[in-house]
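Feature request disguised as a bug: please show the residue count (306) next to Molecular chaperone DnaJ in the output. Example input:
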Amino acid sequence: MEYIDYYKILGLNKDASTDDIKKAYRKLARKHHPDLNPNDKEAVKLFQQINEANEVLSDPEKRKKYDQYGADWKHAEQFEEARKQQRASGQGSANPFGGGEYYSYGGGEEGDFSDFFSSMFGNSGGGAGRRQSKFKGQDYRASLQINLSEAYKTHQQTFTVNGRNIRITVPAGIENGQEIKIAGYGSPGINGGPNGDLYITFTIHNDTQYVRKGNDLYLNVPLNLYKAVLGGEETIDTMDGKVKLTIAPETQNETKVRLKGKGFPVYKKEGVFGDLYVTYQVKMPKNLTEKEKELFRELAAAAEKK
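Example output, currently without the count:
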């Protein structure tokens, strides 16, 4: 595994604060962004490493593992599990290999610690006769931000996790906060063990005029007073195109109508949709002429005689 010194990439010392990391990341990300360095493969690679360094060092738990295990920090959980298993089987105590050495990472050469992992997982050293255990790779977690209009249809999305570009299919109807698993896209397994998995949590931003509640959509439609009183037609936009509505005479303010099947697609149920609820908001006329006011006075007088 190629060792990447995340502190060096961001130009920081190991005692850097969270604010130091944030400032360094923003400065370097702007400087080396691929959009500002077109056709520069080295800039793309460096930008990915900057993102990876920030992802690890800005996460207290990941940073702790990185500081302790160095190049092998992604295998920290497997190491701890293997050490527990060896203790339980009587093969070792504090040092599972029965020797007097203790390996730690101090941020410099990672050779000793890599040797430790090699002997731990049977690649070299005095454990030639020992059965090599297989361990599943570490799971990765990532977040992905999309717009509500994008979530309406199944589409492809490309993003970067730990320096690796991944292209996935996002099913229509995905919900805010929903998590999906991409099997085998985590850290590589050890000694032939399976790869870890990738878990993606979605954050959905509303870029539409609708309010989403589950699979249903809600929309407020302004209606002028004359159409509300006399009736007529109103054309509205749905996420599936335009729809013409028939307005009944004497429609009251805040009247709600349901458009069946015009809501949001149901996740992984092709052709199944929620409903769209339209609420009419009757608007009072403004800037009336004297003639219009007189007509309203006549209407008011007629109403009093009923």
